[in-house]
Structures are given as C-alpha cells and as structure tokens.
Design a protein that fits this description.
By secondary structure, the protein is mostly helical. The chain is about 70% helix and about 5% strand. Helix 1 packs parallel to helix 3, helix 2 packs antiparallel against helix 3 and helix 6 runs antiparallel to helix 7.
C-alpha cells in the first residue's frame, strides 16, 4: 500500500476501537429468548463489515494491515489488564475484587479472541478477495455474506471453545456457538444495504476498486502486490 488514501486510516482506527470494546464486553453471556450469546455479538460483527470494506475497496493488503494492527492492540490490552490486576491496590481503594473479576477474564478471553480473530478475519478477507475475482466484481452481496459465512464459522467456534471451555457445560458451549454464529451472519445480511452504500461511496471518493489478481495472500507478509 504505497498510495495515500483519505479514509483508510480513519476506518482502520475505528476497526481497532470496535475490536477492543468487543473484548471488554465479550465475557458476559446474555439471553434473548432461547438465544444465549456474548454481549460482544452486538458490536463485534462490525469488524467483519470493516474487513469486507477494506478488502473490497482497498484490497487484501489493506485488510491484512488492519488485522495485524488489531491483533497487536488486543495483545497490549490483555497485557495491561493483567498488569493492572496484579498491581497492589491502595489501602483506601476497595474495588480490587470487582476489578479483578472483570479484568481478570480479559487475558483468557483476549487470548481466545487473538486466535479466533486472526483465523476468522483472514478467512473472511481471503474469501471475499477470491469471490470478487470469480464474480468479476459483480454481486457484492455474495461476497459480503459468503465471506461472513466462512469467516464467522471459524471465528465463533474457536472463540467460544477457547474462551469458555471448562467454565461452561459442552451443551451450553455448542448452543452459544450456534446462537452467536446465527446472530453474526444475520447482522451481516441486515447490514448489506449499508455496506453497499459505504463501499460505493469509498470507491468514488478514493477513486479505487482493487482486484487482488497478483496479491500475495500470505497473512504474514506485510506488503502485497495488487492490480
């Protein structure tokens, strides 16, 4: 990514902010009817929509950059949360137990998120980039929904198993996976008109519509060639 873009940095910052907030609220399980899902499911799907926008407009290379920046931000959040809990509380501060209960969950949940997020986001971006080539840039909805179906399947399964295994019964974990997956895919489908508008506006504003014909899809390569 050698060209300068007007909105790419802003979108990347928003992506990282959403990711960090999702990790802070994610450990809470909420119930709506028969659905039992993480509180993050109301927010985290936005990161996949951002990933779709990155890949569709700027290419896989821009998405890869955002994914890694989010990864490092989550690692810092986990480390700082652990450090803050370990530091001795002041004599007059009586909230250590509550603080440790909240932030003590962050390292495990963040570790699960790091693995799940990394695998899921790259699956999402790779699927969208390939579908764009196969469709010749037509039928955006097939790419946004199709990439979410694959990416969220990986993300949700890994996240729930790593974050909650041993803390919840297997039956509950299985239901959380199914519930969370359905919610995430539903959010992507519902957000499709908004995604269309954002993608169209960015393509016009930035004057770009990237096709990853010659892209290096290695997730560990920082730079990528695209045409």
């Amino acid at each position: 990514m050698t060209r300068s873009y007007r909105h790419l940095d802003t979108l990347t910052i928003g992506f990282v902010v959403v990711l960090l907030i999702s990790n802070l609220v994610g450990p809470k399980i909420v119930q709506f009817g028969r659905l039992e899902i993480s509180a993050a499911e109301f927010f985290f799907p936005l990161t996949y929509i951002c990933g779709d926008v990155f890949t569709e407009v700027y290419g896989y290379g821009a998405s890869r950059r955002a994914i890694w920046l989010g990864f490092f931000a989550m690692a810092v959040l986990s480390a700082m949360g652990q450090l803050a809990v370990a530091l001795p509380p002041a004599p007059g501060w009586n909230d250590q137990v509550a603080f440790a209960k909240v932030f003590g969950l962050v390292p495990r949940f963040a570790a699960a998120s790091l693995v799940a997020y990394w695998a899921g986001e790259f699956t999402n971006s790779y699927t969208l980039a390939k579908l764009k080539l196969w469709t010749g840039g037509r039928w955006l909805w097939t790419r946004t929904v199709g990439s979410t179906i694959t990416g969220q399947a990986v993300d949700t399964s890994v996240l729930v198993l790593v974050a909650f295994a041993g803390a919840q019964p297997l039956k509950m974990l299985a239901w959380i996976v199914v519930s969370s997956y359905l919610v995430k895919v539903a959010v992507e489908v519902i957000a499709t008109p908004v995604t269309y508008w954002v993608v169209g506006s960015l393509k016009r504003t930035e004057g770009i519509d990237t096709f990853d014909w010659r892209t290096n899809f290695n997730p560990f390569a920082w730079r990528a060639e695209a045409a």
